[in-house]
Amino acid sequence: MSGIGAASWVGRIPAIRDGLSLTPATIGGLLLCMSLGSFASVSLSGLVVARLGARRSTVVGSLVMSLGLIVTGLGVTVFAAPVVAGIGLATIGIGVSPWNTASNVEGAALERALERHIMPRLHGSFSAGTVIGAALSALAAGLGLPVLWHLSVAAVLVAVLVWIASRSFQSDFVHLPQASTERKIEMTRDPITGPIPVVQPGQKLDAKSQVAAAWREPRTLLIGVLVLGLALAEGAAGDWVPLALADGYGLDNALGAVGYGVFVTAMTIGRFCGTVVLDRWGRVIVLRVCSATAALGLLLFVFAPTPWLAFAALVVWGLGSSLGFPVGMSAVAADDPVRAAARVSVVSTIGYGAFLCGPPLLGLLGEHIGILHSLLAVLVLIVVSFVLAPVTRKQEPIAS
Predict the structure, then answer these.
(1) Bridge pairing between strands 194-198 and 186-190
(2) How crowded is residue 399: how many other Cβ atoms within 10 Å of its Cβ?
(3) How far is CA 293 from CA 233, 270, 298, 342, in A?
(4) What pLDDT score does 397 carry?
(5) Are 339 and 212 in contact (CB under 8 A)?
(6) What's the rounded Cα separation, in Å, for the pair 28 and 387?
(7) What one-character DSSP code corresponds to residue 78?
């Protein structure tokens, strides 16, 4: 439902543009509203989940997103006001972040209970939701359905189905953080990353202390950087592949859109198949292979001599980008339930930087060397992700 909700408004961007008489520059400003809402919210999502629990945070986040969808529709169809639509998109972003953090915490609890990897399939379900949402958006546009009606129906579906699904959540019954006035945090040493803060037996940390402690954990921060690299590889494709195919290979806009569909399909397949390879080879080897595959696909896409080879490169690129975010979430959440929400919020905050800062930076670079060749900048962070893969090794939880 998160994927369907996101794709519902993205798929109606042409109608939103026409309804608000927007230029390319003002469209970018409108999209920035959601990015800023998400970035502001994700930094607080750990506190929200630690206080409300995974189930309530998921329900509240989906309700806020649903409200944002309706406000966006009102801004386009009723008020024809970009400011109202921008407020709606910012509200969507605010709701998505605690929802995503809570979902990752619940998914990590499932991994611990099942003693096998399932996080990639959960993220694969988001990707599948975006495909379904895009198809429904195309149908709504073809039928001439007003944006308000379309987004309102999507909002009701999101709110109702998420509430029903969340009734099966179990992680809140396993772990509920307890508050304490004791805030002192001592340090221990991790064999990979060095000193990390831990809670001594008998101590309890409140939500703020957990988040503050997570920001001082080298392993958590390094996993965040790792996720940043592969998230940028994913986000750059969504933002620039259609334009790169059009400008770099002389294809029309329709084929550019098909190219992005190829990438998303490959990424979805990679996520649904990722659980098998993770159970067999573990996080470090899988992330090393994914990073190398993403780098190879990106290089091949930029330097492909023919368009058909560029499309083949998108398959390789999509498969390589598929597991970075879910495996990063699993590494920080599944190993220690006590600190799961705080650590997920930290890694998500760092990872969201790829989606917030990546597009404008690549756009500025593209002004000088072209959109296609600007994508080579993503390789730097992919290499960093390759080097950092060992920090995701399974850690034994520390009693608190």
Answers:
(1) antiparallel
(2) 11
(3) 11, 12, 9, 31
(4) 52
(5) no
(6) 34
(7) I
Is 191 a residue whose pLDDT tops 50?
no
Closest to 328 (Cα-Cα) out of 361, 291, 280: 291
Inter-helix orientation angle 24-73/147-166, to 10°: 60
**Token reading at 167:** 């009734």
212-240 pLDDT, tens per residue? 888 999 999 999 999 999 988 888 887 67
* Among the listed residues 74, 73, 69, the one whose alpha carbon sits nearest the alpha carbon of residue 93: 69
* Neighbour tally for 373: CB within 10 Å: 15
Q: In the chain, what are the domains?
A: 2-171 (1.20.1250.20), 186-392 (1.20.1250.20)
User: Using CA atoms, how far apart are residues 382 and 293, in angstroms rounded to an integer?
Assistant: 10
Give Cα separations from 338 to 47, 177, 327, 363 (angstroms): 13, 7, 19, 40
Position 193 scores a pLDDT of: 40
Q: Which of 85, 87, 104 has its CA nearest to residue 42?
A: 104
Q: Are 155 and 67 in contact (CB under 8 A)?
A: yes
- pLDDT of 42 reads 82
Write out the two tokens for 374.
């600007």
Amino acid occupying residue 89: L
In this predicted structure, which of 26-30, 284-288, 387-391 has the lowest mean pLDDT? 26-30
Rounded CA separation 210/199 (Å): 10
